Amino acid sequence: MGLALGEPWVLLVGVLLLFAWLVRAAGLRARPITGSYQASVLIVLLLALASATGALALYAQFEKQLLVDKQRLAGNLLIDNDLQGEYLLGERMREIARDPFVRKSLSAAFGQPEAVRQRIARQYLSDYFDKYESNITLYDEAGQPLGALPGTPSLVEARAALERVATPTDQQGVYLLNSGNPFSSRRYVAQITVPGTRVSGFGLPLGAVRVELTLKKLTTYSVLPELLVDQKFFSPAWPPS
């Protein structure tokens, strides 16, 4: 009855009453005699009670998490963008452009593009952005990709293509990629120019960084259908006042 009412603790009370009845029906004493069968029976009943209590606690936690998932899902069906993620992504991109290691690698003749990408992913795209798949592209001062796969477009080509299919957000350099499918994964693209040393207010850029984020479809602790949970992480109250 407890499961039917959605109250697992009602079932726990029933288990406790059943345990008390079994103890009374078996005539078990509070202090069983050593070596008698009563000690073994009491231990088995106590273990069964502990197992039932643990199972009910896990079931209650599962029901709570499922309710939270459904509430987040309902919000995401109404709102497409991630306001908190947009704000944080804009902040992180500015921090990347100021990072000494990134600046030094872009200005060096023999930089380490893979090391820079790993640093950006580890230091700037962790925590909140763990729920996104990331793709990081680096560009030199001429706008050509560094250490990228053959066929990767230049910075100018990538920007032109982005302006045709994406919507600018409130954060500078952060774009939301539109999709005709309301259940497709949310995608963001952020681009920022890494400025060089300025002399009298003038200076050439060292290069640029482009970050593409795609919301993961598989999320932990959820049994909702994959297509329905790919936008489950939306937090509407952002930025803070």
Can you describe this structure in just a few lines?
This protein has helices at 8-25, 37-78, 83-98, 100-107, 113-123, 155-165, and strands at 132-139, 145-146, 166-168, 174-177, 187-194, 207-215.
- Report the CATH topology name of the largest domain: Beta-Lactamase
Radius of gyration: 28 Å
- Supply the number of structural domains: 2
Strand content: 5-15%
* Shape estimate: elongated
The mean pLDDT is 76
Feature tags:
alpha+beta, transmembrane helix, transmembrane, disordered C terminus, 241 residues, membrane, Beta-Lactamase, disordered N terminus
Descriptive notes:
Helix content is 44%, strand content 14%. The protein has 241 residues and is of the alpha+beta class. It folds into 2 domains: 8-77; 81-228, Beta-Lactamase (2-Layer Sandwich). Strands 2-1-6-5-4-3 form a 6-stranded antiparallel beta sheet, with helices on both faces. The longest helix has 42 residues, at 37-78. The relative contact order is 0.14. Mean pLDDT is 76; it is low at 1-5 and 218-241.
List the helices and strands and how they pair.
Elements: H1 8-25, H2 37-78, H3 83-98, H4 100-107, H5 113-123, E1 132-139, E2 145-146, H6 155-165, E3 166-168, E4 174-177, E5 187-194, E6 207-215
Antiparallel strand pairs: 1-2, 1-6, 3-4, 4-5, 5-6
